[in-house]
From TrEMBL:
PROSITE patterns: ABC_TM1. The chain crosses the membrane at residues 34-53, 98-119, 131-152, 179-200, 282-305. This is L-arabinose transport system permease protein AraP. Keywords: Cell membrane, Membrane, Transmembrane, Transmembrane helix, Transport.
């Protein structure tokens, strides 16, 4: 298509021809569908087989009595009734899990934020501090439990050797003390993890926001709480989720110390003891696992609701 202007012929693109040449939706070949089926199907099958399959099986087995060998017998709500009214280890385990969550969420996580802020300000030997504080994160909680035994053992522990008391304190054997000692060890590891997450978040904060707040006369404290901390909301969400997960799945450190007994009972330990222990009460252990699942879902649903409300407000 062309037009004439001042005696010259000017070409004008044909819009209809361009639209006609525009490619339509891509047609997938048989090979493409096969690749998509493999890439999507295998993860879905593994997810169903390893996560959702055992989850629904546990829910079903929680209403039965089964020792893993004999016949499965329907028990109705008897397992849950015994769990809430006739199982003395249950409520202490619930309290310990909640205490674990409170300790990591209210003490360890804020302390990790404080360390991140101090290191981000460029104190001397910040690289050394950062590496030293992060070192426990590369250790599993079981190894942290063994380290706690070396330090807190009654007869051969380093702490009692330093104190030099004639009557050494049984830090890990006393039910009134051992939960706090184990929480300190777990918090030691959790603090380094939180510190690294907040350090990454602080590096991404726009320096211009801090400069604008300083020009407006805001103090360093006001700048942090009113400017910096709100921009760290995604990191706060990640830290909150990790803290809940660490609190509910805590198992290996208490099992390494005393197999989760004598004041260190946790829901995860009770599930393990009943399902694969000598009792082999798979139905009752499944009921404990369902309770732990419901507690986890409570936090997850609350988090999702808050996130959806935040998205709508934004």
């Amino acid at each position: 298509m062309a037009t004439v202007k001042d005696g010259e012929r000017i070409a004008v693109p044909n819009l209809r021809a361009r639209r006609a040449r525009r490619p339509g939706p891509r047609r997938y070949t048989r090979r493409d569908r096969l690749v998509l089926g493999v890439l999507l199907g295998l993860p879905i099958l593994l997810d169903l087989a390893l996560i959702w399959g055992p989850t629904f099986a546990s829910v079903g087995l929680s209403f039965t009595t089964w020792d893993g060998i004999g016949d499965i017998r329907w028990a109705g709500l008897n397992n849950y009734d015994h769990l809430f009214t006739g199982y003395p280890q249950f409520w202490p385990a619930v309290r310990h899990n909640l205490l674990w969550l409170a300790f990591l969420g209210l003490l360890a996580a804020p302390f990790g934020l404080l360390l991140a802020v101090l290191i981000d300000r460029g104190v001397r030997f910040s690289r050394f501090y950062q590496s030293t504080l992060y070192m426990p994160v590369v250790l599993s909680l079981a190894v942290v439990g063994f380290i706690a035994q070396l330090i807190l053992s009654r007869d051969q522990g380093a702490l009692n050797a330093v104190l030099g008391s004639k009557n050494p304190t049984d830090w890990l054997g006393n039910p009134g003390l051992n939960i706090w000692m184990v929480l300190l060890a777990a918090g030691w590891r959790h603090t380094g993890y939180v510190m690294i997450l907040y350090l990454a978040g602080l590096k991404s904060v726009d320096p211009g926001l801090k400069e604008a707040a300083a020009l407006d006369g805001a103090s360093a404290r006001q700048t942090f709480f009113r400017v910096v901390l709100p921009t760290l909301r995604p990191v706060n969400v990640i830290v909150g989720v990790i803290t809940v997960i660490e609190s509910l799945r805590a198992f290996d450190i208490v099992y390494a110390v005393n197999k989760g007994r004598n004041g260190l009972e946790l829901l995860s330990v009770l599930v393990t003891d009943n399902i694969i222990g000598e009792a082999s009460r798979i139905g009752f252990g499944s009921a404990l696992a369902v309770v732990l699942l419901l507690v986890s879902l409570g936090f997850i649903v609350t988090y999702l609701v808050q996130e959806l409300r935040g998205e709508r407000r934004r």
